[in-house]
């Protein structure tokens, strides 16, 4: 692609290159800046690409795009490196987002489940081929393109992935949109057909610093969307609702302005939930494979968004009844043992509280809970997660999650002050494999073992190195050693 085509729609302040020169690749990582590539210096999470311009030149980049005027090399100066990165990547891959309907989902919790739910509804009700970009996988229809790198990938990978989806015949794409990606403009230039706001609770304050900043980042999605679906039972979403810059529909259980509601809710222990979905004068019974009130909110979110995408209320509800479980979300691990083992991605104070409360409701024996906290992330939530887990557990095991570059013992030391160890017996086992084995060995008939934090993840990151680790696999190994076989 010629440079002049690459820069279509990008405000240029200065140009020191041949606009008809060919570019064969785009990147924002200097290590990928090969001859023929354009390196776009942008502000990414935790780093500034301008610090790596010299490195990109050394590896052979044919063009530097940055906010600096660099007359001594082939370069383009732009006003905003982040906005330029998003537009350049869209141009390079043929603006694939313009050829599909893109639905963005933001919120602290429920994004992945809502995304899988909506993908299922659009597939069943419209016969559409639907792409998925999120925390678990990147998919085109039922084809898994790759495991997730980030919930919302960097702009080069994002538009490359969208191009693959368009080439495979996808007409819709459901994607999780993180607060980080909105804050740094990673999804700039994408016009969302619909945006969903699930909820807001404490997370990522290591980056956003305040809840106000966190909310403001997430709210940006509505200025990029044709319509919105918001959980009005969530105080943050309800506060945004009256002044949104796009058309919006509310959903919920209690709020009087919720157009889509759930009534007559019932739970079948951990086997699922059912409710009557209400919209206008219509009422339809919906059955879910997973229990928990939060699963009802996720279902309502998907149903509400589907209405704006041309699905009838009846068809959306019917499709929701056959939605499959999402990997790592209230996932049962069963080898015939006389107790439940659940693996869940809960990794915020509120999600730990919700999943623990749900598990407590259907557990006749003891609730044995296990969790840790990720390293190099918001430290203030660690004691809050400890308090939430201990409130419902009969026995709590504190272990390691993904410590990244922090020492596991330091992370655990941040968790323990939130736990009343007199009220909830607590064991500290830093080795997660040993901790899971211990939890399973302690369980008896009627008990529930709840393993939180990693969910679908198949790795553990220690000192920057990722090694294979799958909570569900570890549970099955522990059950096998105990004499139970799937």
Structure commentary:
The protein has 486 residues and is an alpha/beta fold. Helices cover 32% and strands 24% of the residues. The protein has an eleven-stranded mixed beta sheet, sandwiched between helices. Helix 3 runs parallel beside helix 5 and helix 15 (432-442) packs across helix 16 (471-481). The radius of gyration is 24 Å and the shape is globular. The relative contact order is 0.09.
SS-based class: alpha/beta
Strand order of the largest sheet: 11-10-9-12-8-13-14-15-16-17-18
CA-based gyration radius: 24 Å
Q: What is the number of E strands?
A: 26
Q: How far apart lie the N and C ends? A: 54 Å
Question: Treating each run of at least 4 consecutive H or I residues as one helix, how many helices?
Answer: 16
Tell me, briefly, the overall form: globular
Largest sheet: 11 strands, mixed
Keywords:
six-stranded mixed beta sheet, 16 helices, 26 strands, alpha/beta, globular, single chain, 486 residues, eleven-stranded mixed beta sheet
Summarize the structure.
With 486 residues, the protein is an alpha/beta fold.
């Amino acid at each position: 692609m010629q440079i002049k085509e690459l820069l279509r729609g990008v405000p240029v302040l200065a140009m020191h290159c041949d606009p008809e020169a060919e570019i064969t690749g785009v990147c924002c990582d200097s290590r990928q800046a090969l001859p023929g590539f354009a390196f776009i210096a942008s502000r990414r999470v935790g780093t500034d690409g301008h610090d790596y311009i010299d490195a990109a030149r050394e590896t052979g980049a044919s063009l530097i795009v940055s906010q600096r005027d660099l007359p001594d090399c082939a370069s383009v100066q732009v006003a905003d490196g982040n906005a330029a990165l998003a537009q350049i990547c869209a141009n390079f891959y043929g603006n694939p987002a313009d050829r599909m309907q893109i639905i963005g989902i933001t919120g602290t919790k429920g994004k992945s489940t809502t995304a899988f739910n909506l993908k299922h509804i659009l597939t069943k009700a419209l016969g559409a081929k639907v792409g998925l970009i999120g925390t678990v996988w990147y998919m085109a229809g039922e084809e898994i393109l790759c495991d997730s790198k980030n919930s919302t990938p960097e702009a080069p990978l994002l538009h490359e992935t969208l191009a693959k989806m368009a080439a495979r015949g996808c007409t819709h794409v459901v994607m999780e949109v993180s607060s980080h990606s909105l804050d740094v403009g990673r999804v700039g230039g994408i016009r969302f057909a619909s945006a969903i706001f699930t909820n807001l609770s404490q997370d990522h304050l290591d980056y956003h610093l305040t809840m106000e900043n966190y909310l403001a980042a997430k709210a940006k999605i509505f200025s990029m969307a044709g319509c919105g679906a918001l959980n009005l039972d969530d105080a943050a979403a309800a506060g945004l609702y009256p002044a949104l810059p796009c058309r919006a529909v509310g959903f919920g259980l209690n709020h009087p302005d919720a157009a889509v509601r759930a009534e007559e809710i019932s739970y079948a222990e951990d086997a699922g939930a059912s409710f009557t979905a209400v919209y206008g004068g219509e009422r339809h019974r919906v059955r879910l494979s997973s229990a928990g009130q939060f699963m009802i909110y996720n279902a309502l979110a998907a149903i509400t968004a589907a209405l704006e995408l041309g699905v009838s209320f009846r068809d959306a509800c019917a499709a929701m009844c056959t939605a499959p479980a999402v990997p790592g979300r209230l996932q049962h691990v069963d080898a015939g043992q006389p107790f439940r083992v659940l693996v869940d991605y809960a990794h915020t104070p509120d999600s730990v509280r919700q999943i623990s409360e749900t598990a407590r409701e259907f557990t006749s024996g003891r609730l044995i809970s296990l969790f840790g906290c990720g390293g190099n992330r918001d430290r203030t939530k660690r004691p809050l997660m400890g308090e939430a887990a201990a409130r419902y557990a009969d026995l709590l095991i504190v272990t390691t999650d993904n410590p990244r570059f922090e020492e596991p013992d330091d992370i655990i030391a941040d968790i323990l002050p939130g736990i009343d160890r007199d009220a909830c017996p607590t064991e500290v086992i830093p080795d997660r494999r040993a901790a899971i084995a211990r939890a399973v060995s302690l369980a008896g008939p009627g008990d529930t073992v709840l393993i939180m934090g990693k969910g679908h993840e198949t790795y553990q990151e220690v000192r920057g190195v990722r090694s294979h680790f799958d909570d569900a696999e570890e549970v099955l190994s522990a059950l096998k050693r105990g004499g139970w076989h799937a």
